[in-house]
Amino acid sequence: MGRMYVYAGIDEAGYGPLLGPMTIGRTVFVLPDDASSPSGPPDLWQKLQRTVCRRLAGRKGRLAINDSKKLTTKAAGIKYLEQGCLSFASLAGHQADSVDAWLSVLGETCHQDLTSLPWYAPCADRPWETLPVTHSADERRIDRAMLIKDAQAHNITLADLGVAVVLEDRFNQMVTATRSKAAVNFTFVASHLQHIWEHFAMHHAHVAVDRQGGRISYRDLLQLNFPKAQLTVLGQSPTRSAYRLTQNDRTMTVTFQPHAETAHMPTALASMLAKYTRELMMARFNAYFCARVTGLAPTAGYATDAKRWLTQMQPHWSVLGHDPAQVRRLA
Q1: pTM score, two decimals?
Q2: Which of 148, 190, 289, 307 has a beta carbon 3.0–4.6 Å from 225's, enabling a disulfide?
Q3: Distance between CA atoms of 3 and 157, rounded to whole angstroms?
Q4: Is the pLDDT of residue 37 over 80?
Q5: Are 189 and 196 in contact (CB under 8 A)?
Q6: Whether the Cβ atoms of residue 202 and residue 249 lie closer than 8 Å to each other
C-alpha cells in the first residue's frame, strides 16, 4: 500500500445508564494521500452524498450517518442505526448474520463466556438473534451494493471497525479499581488509539474523539499510554484539544472535541456502531427479564427509568436467584 490518508473516529454509547453495557466504537477510513486540506480532514458526507446523508428527513433512500441519538426514533427503533452499521460493515468486508457473529466482527470476545451474566447468554429457547432485525436481507443487499459502488468511485475504504463492549461485571470491577467512570471510558478510548497507532500510524492517522465531560487537557493521559512517542500539544481549549504523536515512521494526530460526531463522519459512525451494539445487548437483557417477571416493562437502562425498573424487580430477585448488584452498574 502506498502513502494514504487515514481518518478515524472514536465515540461511546451507554456512558450514563445504570443498566446494560457501556460500548466504545472505532472506525478507520483510508483515502488517497491528497484527501486532506490545510483546513482539516475531508468531508466524507459530501464525498459520499449520493448514498449517505446526515438527516433522516429527506433521506431519499440514502443511509443516515450521524450522532446515534439523532437516528433512534420511537417509530423506527434501531432501523436507521442498523441500516448504516451493517452497510458500512459490508464496506469493510464483513457480513454478520447473527448477534454473536456481529460481536466477533467487532473484535469482541465478551459473548464467549456469559456464565455470570445469564440475561445475555444464548440458550435453546433464546438463541442469538438473526441479523438484520429491522429490515430484509434484500434491502440489506441493495444498501450494501449502493454504498460500495459510491465508495469505490471516490477511492474510500473503511479499513477497520471495532466496538469494546464493557458488560456490567467488568464495568463495576473497573470502576471499583479506578474510582472513576471517566477513567474506565478512557481506558477503552486509549485501547482504540493504540490499535490505530499500531496498524495505521505509518500513514499519518488523524483521529477525532468525542469528548466526555469537561476535560480540556489530555496530554498526560496520552503520554501515559504512548510513553515512547514524542507528544506535541497543537492546542487546548474548551472547543478543541489537539495533539500529535510521533515515533520513528509513525505519526498520529488526535483531537478531542464536544460533539465530534457532528463534525466528523468517522466519529458519527463510531457512535452508531457503539449504540447499535448496546441496543442489541439491551434487547437480550429485556427479553430475559420480561419473560420471567409478569408485567415488567422493558427499559433502556438510563437513570430515571432504570430506577423504575429496579423498583419493579425488587420482589423478584430471590426467586430468580440473581443478586441485583450483578445487574446494576456503579454510578
Answers
A1: 0.96
A2: 190
A3: 14
A4: no
A5: no
A6: yes
Q: Is the pLDDT of residue 280 over 60?
A: yes
Is the pLDDT at 39 greater than 90? The verdict is no
The answer to whether position 235 is within a domain reads: yes
Query: pLDDT tens digits for 51-69?
Result: 999 999 989 899 999 999 9
Q: Is residue 252 part of a domain?
A: yes
What DSSP letter does each residue of 151-198 carry, written as one string?
A: HHHTT-EEEEEEEEEE-HHHHHHHHHHHS-HHHHHHHHHHHHHHHHHH
Total domains present in the chain:
1
Measured CA to CA, the distance from residue 32 to residue 24 in angstroms comes to: 27
Tell me whether residue 139 is in a domain: yes
Residue pair 277/106 in contact by the 8 Å Cβ criterion: yes
In order, the DSSP letters of 49-63 are TTTEES-STT-TTPE
In a domain, 311, yes or no: no
Write the burial class of residue 74 (CB in 10 Å: 0-12 exposed, 13-18 middle, 19+ buried): exposed
Residue 43, all three cell numbers? 468531508
C-alpha cell at 5: 490518508
Three-point CA angle 309, 131, 79, nearest 5°: 65
What is d(CA 282, CA 291) in angstroms, rounded to the nearest whole number?
14
Q: What is the pLDDT of residue 273?
A: 98
pLDDT at 213 over 90: no
Specify the CATH number for the domain of residue 133.
Answer: 3.30.420.10
- Res 331: pLDDT: 81
Burial code (b: 16+ CB inside 10 Å, e: under 16) for 3-42 equals: ebbbbbbbbbbbeebbbbbbbbbbbbbbbeeebeeeeebb
pLDDT greater than 90 at residue 2: no
